[in-house]
Design goal:
The chain is mostly helical. The chain has seven helices and two strands.
Length: 139
């Protein structure tokens, strides 16, 4: 049986094991949570645009999951996460053993000027290391 050390090669092991905010990589987990909780059903699942004019013009319309994923649209994934809800999101993170599993700053740290562009996964309470991320779906 191979050990983890047999399957991974580190460039900078210390940095690879340091927990940081997941930012855009969290789209994968929020999509999974949305699918598991019936918030989204497939790549055509659409979230409604609020009318706010964002600096990224690709975000200024209703978007499907596929479009939101391609453009890394924060407001789309914020809607998915809010629809899943705190308790179910916590359950998802616990089941995945995702980083520190800390949703305590649900609304985020105000890293972005728009409320709907903030959340616990963006320079806030949730942290995970790159190494932990590689182990998430490793079987």
């Amino acid at each position: 049986m191979k050990t983890l050390e047999d399957r991974y090669c580190f460039y900078n092991e210390e940095m690879a094991k340091q927990e940081v905010s997941p930012y855009s990589t969290f789209k994968i987990v929020s999509t999974l949570a949305g699918l598991n909780n019936g918030v989204i059903k497939d790549k055509t699942s659409t979230m409604n645009y609020s009318g706010v004019q964002y600096p990224n013009p690709e975000w200024n319309t209703n978007l499907t999951l596929e479009e939101a994923f391609q453009t890394s649209c924060i407001w789309y994934f914020r809607q998915v996460i809010d629809s899943v809800g705190y308790t179910e999101m916590q359950n998802e993170l616990n089941e995945l053993d995702y980083g520190n599993k800390d949703l305590s700053e649900w609304e985020g740290s105000n890293i972005n000027p728009y409320e709907e562009l903030n959340g616990f996964w963006l320079n806030s309470s949730l942290k995970i290391s790159p190494f932990e991320q590689t182990k998430l779906f490793d079987s």
